[in-house]
Each structure stands twice: as C-alpha cells, then as structure tokens.
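ligand=pantoyl adenylate
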Amino acid sequence: MRELEWTSSSDTPARTRLAIVGRGRLGTALAGALSQAGYDVSGPMGRGADGRGADAVLLCVPDAEIAPAASHVAPGPLLGHCSGATGLGELTPHEGFSLHPLMTVTAEGAEFAGAGAAIAGTTPRALAFAAELAEALGMQAVEVAEPDRGAYHAAASIASNFLVTLEAAAGRVAAAAGVQREQLVPLVRATVDNWARLGPERALTGPVARGDEVTIVRQRAAVEDVAPDLTPLFDELVSATRAFAAARDPSGTDTRATGARDGYAGDGSAGDRPRPGGPAGMNVIGTVAELRAELLEPRRAGRRIGLVPTMGAFHEGHLSLMRRARRDCDVVVVSLFVNPAQFNDAGDLDAYPRDPDHDAALAAGVGVDYLFAPSVDEVYPSGFATEVSVAGVTEPLEGAHRGRAHFDGVTTIVTKLFNMVGPDVAYFGQKDAQQAAVIRRLVRDLDIPVAIEVCPTVREADGLAMSSRNMHLSPADRVRATALHRALRAAQDAVSAGERDPGAARERALAELTAVSIEPEYVELVSADTLAPVDRIAGDVLAVLAAVVGGTRLIDNQPIQPNGGTGRP
Ligand code: PAJ
C-alpha cells in the first residue's frame, strides 16, 4: 500500500491512483507490476486517454507520440513518460517526470526488480514520485540530467540492442558452420557474466587481445565468404577491440614488436625473410630469376599481375592493398624488402619491426600468390651504382625533413621492383601521399608501363592512421597521437564551413596539436598533385602533417574537399 503526502488528506491513507496510457509491452508490464506493488492502477488505456480522476498519469508510448498523448491529458495529475531519450519539455504544461527502466521488455514481460532506472522531474515533487515508482518496482533509480539524456540512452542502446545485433550476426556465421544459435548461448552468458564480475579489461579474451593476426585474417576471410555484408562490421569490431586492448594493456598488445626484433639480423640475412616455400597456397620467393620464371607463363597468358610493394610488419593498411590487388588482378605479388637505401638513420633501420613468418601467414591469409622477399645482396649486389631520382615533388615536406636521399631510395627500389615483377598495376597507400605522388611522377616521366592505384588510409577506431611505427608509442603518447587525425579533420571542417584561406585552416589544425603539446614538423595545405603550398583552397588539396610524438615520427594526411563531404582518405 503506497501513500503519498500530496494525495493523502484524510485519516485513511489513499492509494495513489495511477493511469497507465499505452497498451504496448511496457504499458502492460508496468500496469501489472505497479498494481502488484499496491498502486490503484487503471489501464493500460488507449493513447487518447485524458487521465481524469488519476493522481498521476504514466505515458508508455513511443517517443514521437509522447507530445500528442500529453496534449489529451487534463490539467491536474502529475504526468510522466517512460522514455530515455525524450526530454521533459514534451510534457509541458504538466508537472512532469520520467522513469526509464534500464531493462528490456519483450512479449513475455520484464523483470524490473534489481534493474536500473533513469529518473527525472520538472519539480522536486515530480522527481520524488518518479523515485518512488522506481523503488516500488524494486529498481535502482539514478537521476539523469536533461543534457545527459542522449549519452545515457546511447549507452543503453549499445549495451542492449546492439548486443542483440551482434549476437544475431554471430548466429548467422555460426549457422554457416553448422552450429546452432543455442550452442552459442553459454558462451554469451559467460561473457556477459565475466564483463559484469571482472570488468571489461579482464573480460576481454580472444585473438585480437592476444595479437593473433593470423587467426583474425582467417576469421575475416570466413566471414567474407559466408556473410559478406557482415565484413565491414567485423572490421570495425576488430579495430575497436584492438584500440581497447591497446589502451588496456600497453605492455603486451603487440606481440610483433618483440618477436620481430628478436629475429632481426639487420643485414638482409635469412632471418629477415620468410622461410622459403611459405604457407600453403602462397609461394615465397627470394630471387629475381625465380620470380621471373614463375611469372613468365601468366604474363604470356595475358593474366593481370598486381604488385604491392612493402617493407613488412603487416597491418590492416598493408592487407587492404593486398585485398584490393586480389580483387582486381589474376596474380598478386607482394614484395617484402626493408630497403636500407631509404633510411637516413641506421638506428631507424635497425629498429624497423620485422616478423617475416608472421607476415607470410598474413599475406597467405588474404590470398597473395607470391611473396617476393629478396636479400639485400640480391637487390643491391656489390658494385651497384645507379640511382633513380625524381625532382620537384620530392623536395617539400618529407623531402625537406628527411632529406632527398629518402625519396631517392624509394624511387630506386620501386623502379627496380617494377622491372623485376613487371606488374600491370601497383598498389600504394594514401597514408604516404607524397610517396604516392612521387611514384606517379616516376612512372609518367620514365614511361614505366604500370598503372598506379592509390588506396584509402586505413585507421584505428580512434582515427590514428595505421603504421608499423605506432607500436613504438607509449600508452600516453598513443592517446596524444590521435590529435593528428583531429587536426586534419579540423582543417577539413573549417573548409567545409566555407574557409578558403589555407593559413586559417592550418591554424585550426595547429590548435588541435598544440592542445596536447605536439609541435609538428610541418602542417600544410598543399596541392594534391605537386605537393606545393596553395594560396587558396580550390580543387584537389591535401592537408598534410608530420610530428614526432614521444620520439616516434608520424605522418598523416587528408584530402580536403572544398564543397563539403568528409574527404575521408
Ligand atoms: P611500407 O611502409 O611497408 O608501406 C607499404 C605500403 O602500404 C605503402 O604504399 C603505404 O602507403 C601503405 N600503407 C601504410 N600504412 C597504410 C595505411 N594505414 N593505410 C593504407 N595504406 C597504408 O611505403 C613503403 O613501405 C616503402 O616506402 C616502399 C614503397 C615499399 C618502398 O620501399
């Protein structure tokens, strides 16, 4: 039996008369539970009810119908709704409250006792009534301020609705393997239970947490095979899980870092290269002669050969190029060669991560046909005396900061790789925008018969562009480094809002960096073609930047679109 001061004027305590409007699942469940708790409940009734005679009216209707339903309610009673997202303004001019159960209500009803409930009220009395209803239902009430409703409700959707979407996806993939949904249930229960008992950090297990990239690649290939529409979701989840695992346990997240350096000989000796033969389905090749012999037949048959030049330590950025090549070409060759000629610092070359067997497994996982991993001697035999050097586009930005020798090293090795492989198409990443522009100029100037494809930058969930150097960042610097992407977005946002002065857009980017004490080597708005600074933003413009964050040099860029759009690289 409930008594409220505001209804009780006689000696006999009056039961609070509560009208429930809305005959859906929630209205039905609340009417039952509150009547059991001692309230004098009428309803659930239809949406046009005026609530006359009630002390309080509770609207259990969809958000869009709260205001129309409220307009039918006669003046007098307290008026509440059960929405998490909608504010109390919809109840005006009534004295209003809201009670949002943090609990799902299915056709079978709901278990309110023990669940949370978000409450709010336009007056202390209305808030107290919402608290009282929650208590009567055995719920843990928490007051959520109006400005916090959006975040509160998003959290509820992620925790509940999106989890169901994930489980539905898991069920589909499981079904393709002949595993029934029911067989996943104990796993899901144990996971949620671990999350509740141990917290998210300790509850996270599995291949992403272990850094087991080979397994992730295999899983992705399977998803792509049995439920291709789920691949983007899978990729996003891997990326978000990686970011979470990295923030959680900075010491042990990237197993490649240690494994790589342990096995590194640094002189192009066999320890730098994958074991010959390689994983099933992929051929690992160490010499130019062998490679040419292998490609002779496909070339004669007019098959399309794609090349992805790399220096190893594969991450999703590299794998995205390989997948693209796999999609577009008949034969996919990936070169893995840590090119000493493009490092201007011996320490940098020594520290370059290497894990050739792991790389070979990843490449095989995405369907690469040949992993070409030559030794330093194979590429630069004694007496080697030729250099390919591109002028102009190599001079600003990276050229100015790393020295011309860097790009001379890149153009020399890439020319050699083109001659060794003879690809129809070669794939490069937008992540290294200047490198891509230099390569385009190289093939144009030297009439090299290869098409250059530049693929979008692959980013971590928090926006940091993937790079083999990221593994050197300390946890704190890993967080600071996200400012690079924010800076580029700030420049894009300024331009989208109408800014055409590169200096002003640059200042916006700079502000994001200085906010976390990052002094960039450069932040510029340049022509995407020539890499020269622009004096007005029009046409294809790139925002580019480089910065040393905690001793690790990072670069990033963003194509800028003057007429809106995300310009997402
Ligand atoms: P590496 O740094 O191994 O990069 C190989 C290719 O992967 C490059 O084309 C690079 O732009 C691309 N890449 C790197 N990170 C990426 C990301 N987050 N998203 C998309 N693509 C990404 O670049 C080199 O090697 C070398 O200079 C090389 C061209 C192989 C010459 O030695």
